[in-house]
Every structure is written in C-alpha cells, then in structure tokens.
Design the sequence.
C-alpha cells in the first residue's frame, strides 16, 4: 500500500494545526464512515497515510489533550484493523477456505 492524496501537505498541515474536533470528525469519517459511493470517488486512506497522520498528531503542541490522544488511538485502530482484516483474508486463501 502506497501513500495516497490523504498524505498530501495540505491534509497534513490541517492535521498539524487545525481544530482537533473538526479533524477528529474528518479523519473518523474518512476511516470508518464513508459510503461505498464516496470511497469510489475519494478513495480510502492507506495504512501509510494513517501512520503519517499519527506522526503528525503526535507532533501537535496540544498532543496531551485527550481529544488528540483519542484521535491517535482511532488512527492506530484503523491501521491495526486493516492489517488484521487483510491477514485473515490471506490466511483463508492460503488455507484454501
């Protein structure tokens, strides 16, 4: 998985300096709530994108804020979740299920 437009400088700058409430809503929407139609139009963030977001969130001056921490956890869940989902699919394939 490569980085996508979700790692573009404008995105990262917004995550670094923007209002955390708004960022949490936006990232949450992009990671968990996009409809299939929207996914086709805007794509979904790759694990690399989300890892990048985590780094940027950790570099925020208000990183101790609970909302920032929650946002980081949400991103980590996404990365771990996608990896687990992919892994179980691969295991099923190799097991010939």
Sequence:
């Amino acid at each position: 998985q490569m980085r996508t437009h979700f790692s573009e400088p404008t995105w990262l700058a917004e995550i670094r300096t923007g209002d955390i409430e708004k960022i949490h809503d936006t990232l949450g929407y992009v990671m968990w709530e996009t409809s299939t139609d929207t996914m086709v139009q805007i794509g979904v963030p790759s694990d690399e994108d989300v890892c990048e977001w985590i780094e940027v969130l950790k570099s925020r001056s208000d990183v101790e804020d609970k909302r920032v921490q929650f946002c980081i956890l949400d991103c980590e869940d996404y990365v771990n979740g996608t990896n687990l989902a992919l892994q179980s699919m691969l295991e099923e394939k190799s097991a010939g299920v």
Notes: The mean pLDDT is 86. The two ends are 25 Å apart (CA to CA). Helices lie at 9-17, 20-33, 36-42, 47-58, 66-95. Residues 5-95 form one domain.
